[in-house]
Amino acid sequence: EYRYPVIKKILTDAKYRKNFGNLKIFGPYLASVLLDIVIEYTELTHYKDILIIPVPISKKRLKTRGFNQADIIAESIMANLQPGSNFKLVNNIIIKIKDRTPQASIHKRSQRLNSPKGTFQIKNLDANTHKSKILNGTLCIVIDDITTTGGTILEIRKILLEAGAQNVIGLTVAH
User: According to the model, what pLDDT value does residue 117 have?
Assistant: First the structure.
């Protein structure tokens, strides 16, 4: 949880002080949680692939910050999963098309929930079907550092399902 001082320090140091090395310590734990989730969700349904998708940041923020914390967390999770498994890191299928007010500076829950709407877009959709061949029949695990209202994860879930994903789950370091 974000209220724990150690978690809060690691996440704020990464985002605001460019000290992102400690983000990798979450990889083993999140990989374990992910495996438990996948076992539960794949018992009844077979998925073509399981895609690990980090929440993207805008080009402007990437240029300023120099890294995307969700990418680092996702890469650390992948490093702790069995090689040859059907997990695939896909960090270029969603783009952030709108730079919005950072969630941390929005205090009303209703505004936080609505803020991400229309912010993200799936790349390379089929012009006729508006679906993605990569997403068709997949279980998508959306990775982010922190969630408060779930607005970002919900918005990304919506566009992934519209583009052909079979199921979408959010996984974050803290809430």
Answer: 80
In single-letter form, the type of residue at position 110 comes to: S
Q: Which residue has the higher pLDDT, 106 or 22?
A: 22
DSSP assignment of 14-58 equals HHHH---GGGGGGHHHHHHHHHHHHHHHHTT---S-EEEEEPP--
What is the DSSP secondary structure assignment for residue 175, as one 8-state letter?
-
Q: Could you tell me the residue range of the domain that residue 66 belongs to? A: 26-174
In a domain, 9, yes or no: no
Task: Tell me the three state secondary structure of residue 38.
Answer: helix
CATH number at residue 137: 3.40.50
pLDDT over 70 at 112, yes or no: no
Domains identified in the chain, total number: 1
Tell me whether residue 33 is in a domain: yes
The 3-state secondary structure of 91-120 reads CCCEEECCCCCCHHHCCCHHHHHHCCCCCE
83, part of any domain? yes
The chain-wide mean pLDDT, for the chain, equals 86
* Residue 67, domain member (yes or no): yes
